[in-house]
Amino acid sequence: MKIGVLGSGMVGVAIATKLVKLGHEVKMGSRSATNEDGAKWVAATGKGASQGTFKDAAAFGELLFNCTSGSGSLPALESAGKDALGGKILVDIANPLDFSGGMPPRLSVVNDDSLGEQIQRAYPNVKVVKTLNTVNANLMVEPGLLKDATTMFLCGDDAASKGKVQEILKGWFGWQDTVDLGPIAMARGTEMYLALWVRLYGALQNPMFNVKLVR
Amino acid sequence: MKIGVLGSGMVGVAIATKLVKLGHEVKMGSRSATNEDGAKWVAATGKGASQGTFKDAAAFGELLFNCTSGSGSLPALESAGKDALGGKILVDIANPLDFSGGMPPRLSVVNDDSLGEQIQRAYPNVKVVKTLNTVNANLMVEPGLLKDATTMFLCGDDAASKGKVQEILKGWFGWQDTVDLGPIAMARGTEMYLALWVRLYGALQNPMFNVKLVR
Looking at CA atoms only, how far is residue B3 from chain A in angstroms? Predict the structure, then answer.
């Protein structure tokens, strides 16, 4: 499948690398078509890997991943443009973290809105599915790195798209336990969970952890 | 041990009942010394159970539990008064949930403050230890009701008091896996986690769940 990955940071590299290993053609999108991190990734990854602007990546992919930072997500999508985004599935992994006051970061959107909803409102035709935002980049694509199976949450307004993303989570990345929280507004819950995640990271001094939902 | 339990709702009843079963003398505190829920609890529980005002319960206990609602916590503690609270350990279970806009509730304090910190600032001599606020009342005192062991977080500024509360969590209530997040400011994380908890409750239609931290 042709897949567009928006963002060339740790999350974008982890997702894009895994997708290429699975045999997909992946275009990594950045502000510039000659982004240095993107170029390094293309060189290191080889066949199946390419890079371009956010618009190039969005136009290329039949399926899209938003791997930009929370503050960069709406600008990146605006740069991609409505035409390139079309009515595609956008797996939204970004968290609205504000590091301007130091560590741990604040959440810049809480309670009555979420980044996932902001994206969905701005691009009503896009099928936004929020998931993978509750774990470290390495765990996103290899949850088996932890000694026990853990849980991945997802939410979104379009049931069929959530079904496809659940298949991707399970079949491509190895998430055996996924929990559908409901519509995209449930992103308020998984994004605000980051307030606990960043403090657990501080207490454990290691980002390789996740929660298993026992019910 | 003589223990004061502030609050006569579901959480207060669950905690106080368990403590009496463990052989402790428990005074349940409410706004009125003749509170109806408190009277029912005393009648149902018998030996070891008594009730009184918030001030009566705080003065009675060598150890205190804050089981009031989030919006009722500071008024209850003000009613108890600095003298009765003294320099005792206060296990703070309350969450700053605001139900005025319907379900799911909002968090009335986020990001830069928490209810745990508000209580600690208002009563600097009290040893506030925030814990148990991330699970349903029944699970607080019987985590074995779930099929797998799960995790309980705690935080507070006084290390010795946290150590005692960890012993209580483990020895009295059965929490084998406790995670000390650090100072009371870490309550921002466990309180904001409630934004996910309330949505999980909605999705699962059952409050009997918790997370196991896999690391």
Answer: 30
The answer to whether B99 faces chain A, any CB pair under 8 Å, is no
Euclidean distance between CA atoms B167 and B154, whole angstroms: 12
For residue B43, count other CB atoms closer than 10 A to its CB: 9
- CB-based contact (8 Å) between B39 and chain A? no
Q: What is the pLDDT of residue B196?
A: 98
Angle at B82 between CA B152 and CA B121, to 5 degrees: 55
Question: Taking the CB of residue A55, how many other CB atoms lie within 10 A of it?
Answer: 19
Q: What is the pTM of this model?
A: 0.98
**What are the pLDDT digits (tens) for B112-149?**
999 999 999 999 999 999 999 999 999 999 999 999 99
Nearest-CA neighbor of B169 among B183, B155, B157?
B155
